[in-house]
Amino acid sequence: MEGAMSNRVMSCCVSPNEIKNPAFFSPRTGIYSSKHAPRTLPQNPFLDLVSFLFSHEHQGEIALVDSRTGFSISYKMLRELVDSVASGLQTMGICSKDVVLILLPNSVLFPVILLGVLSIGAVVTTMNSLSSIDEIRKQMRFGNSKLAFTSLENIEKIENLGVLHHIVAVPEDLNYDKAKFPLFDRLISSNSKIMLKPIIHQSDTAAILYSSGTSGLSKGVVITHRNLISMVELFVRFEASQYENKSWNNVYLAALPMFHVYGLSLFTMGLLSLGSTIVVMRRFDMQEAIRAIEKYKVTHFPVVPPILGALVRAKSATGCKLESLMQISSGAAPLSRKVIQDFLRAFPHIDFIQGYGMTESTAVGTRGFNSGGSDKKYKSVGLLAPNMQAKVIDLRSGSCLPPGYSGELWLHGPAIMKGYLNDEDATVSTIVENGWLRTGDLAYFDQDGYLFVMDRLKDTIKYKGFQIAPADLEALLIAHPDILDVTVTS
């Protein structure tokens, strides 16, 4: 339990006044500032996310590829398809501020639909395509959805709810039977030239994404166009700028679900502004992932911790080398030191980084670039993203803490959500003091500005007056050779 232990030793033996404060931390305000130079965000109040994405020039040719069939969508075709969907939605009577549900697994058409909806000022809400009928009913009614895009297997289930004006069945790609997908065919065949571009403000709501929140039950996170533009610039485009290779030469494997903020931010938005190629997996399978990496010469693979462990086991079982891979980035959950070390031994040529973000911060928080130096802080989730600030708040006194001390992490910046849908109490308890987001995560910064996330506060185990993070117990257990995966809960 290295994070918690080092904090206790420092708390007992060292006074904050005895520590020299680094330049990125202000002892007067308690604010940590990003060590990265700030990035310029567009000031035009009438700018929407889709216009921002397509305003960037690049030399990318292929935008999206189906990993299984090889069906692809070029960047030229992507813009035309997005405009056609937008035009078709307007013809169907979908207007600015109407809520549209996307209940789909990953596909090359997911980004097309999402961007088409945003183009006309409508609001996107997403769900796991495997959600239960009760979960779907609840989200549809709570968000007042007017239309749903879904797969054929979900059509009957949604129709039986009787709460939507339109339900559009979506094929896997553009090689489809028109008789089975009549509404989709009408949308995708609409004249893109007649789409009437509405006035959209950066402050307008663009998406409602569902999250467990910093505590309690699932909540609708209200995300604006400004939030999404900030995410694209401060997360995706910033990360790409840290490497010398041209972004349009990069090939990403999209195994993460596009309905979740992590996959959504990369595969349906940010990477499309860079000209990168996105190889889309409909659902994750380790052997299919290895085949896709080798076939399409994948260079970048964003993952969650269980996939990292599965890659190590696949290396032992198959001897796969994944020679084209340049970078693997992990997020969404803590990683144990053992899993990281096993991965680095198995694939020493791959640049490994971690990042931190949450739905409420539109996936923006930190990003790690830890492989280049001699002091490789792989356990850290990296440095604060440009334009972002943080505080670490003492759980007992509420005071701001300097580097080396753990407390609740607060974030501030242009990517912080507008609030929770129809839940003012949760909003005011989560966004406090001039826009600071209480993350509900226990964390600390070191003297170099690297952030270490220990666990969720709501999951912390209290034992004999001590606070024990489940992630620390998981790290101890996963070190046992007979344990493949482990979860500890309070």
The fraction of residues assigned to DSSP E strands is 15-25%
Largest sheet: 7 strands, antiparallel
Any idea what the CATH architecture of the largest domain is?
3-Layer(aba) Sandwich
Give Rg in angstroms: 23 Å
* CATH fold-type name of the largest domain: Rossmann fold
CATH class of the largest domain: Alpha Beta
Tally of discrete structural domains: 2
Quick overview of this protein structure:
This protein is an alpha/beta fold.
Features:
seven-stranded antiparallel β-sheet; alpha/beta; 2 domains; globular; seven-stranded mixed β-sheet; Rossmann fold; 490 residues; disordered N terminus; 14 helices
Report what the structure shows.
The protein has two domains: 2-9 and 20-40 and 330-478, ANL, N-terminal domain (Rossmann fold), CATH 3.40.50.12780; 49-283, ANL, N-terminal domain (Rossmann fold), CATH 3.40.50.12780. The chain is built from 14 helices and 25 strands. It has helices at 2-13, 49-54, 75-91, 110-119, 133-143, 152-159, 182-188, 225-241, 261-267, 286-296, 305-318, 337-346, 424-430, 470-478; strands spanning 25-26, 31-33, 62-66, 72-74, 99-103, 123-126, 145-150, 166-169, 205-211, 219-224, 251-254, 277-280, 300-303, 327-330, 351-356, 366-367, 383-384, 389-393, 407-412, 419-420, 431-432, 436-445, 451-456, 461-463, 466-468. Strands 1, 2, 18, 19, 21, 22 and 23 form a seven-stranded antiparallel β-sheet that branches. Strands 8-7-5-6-9-10-20 form a seven-stranded mixed β-sheet, with helices on both faces. A five-stranded mixed β-sheet has the order 13-14-15-16-17. The protein is globular and about 65 Å long.
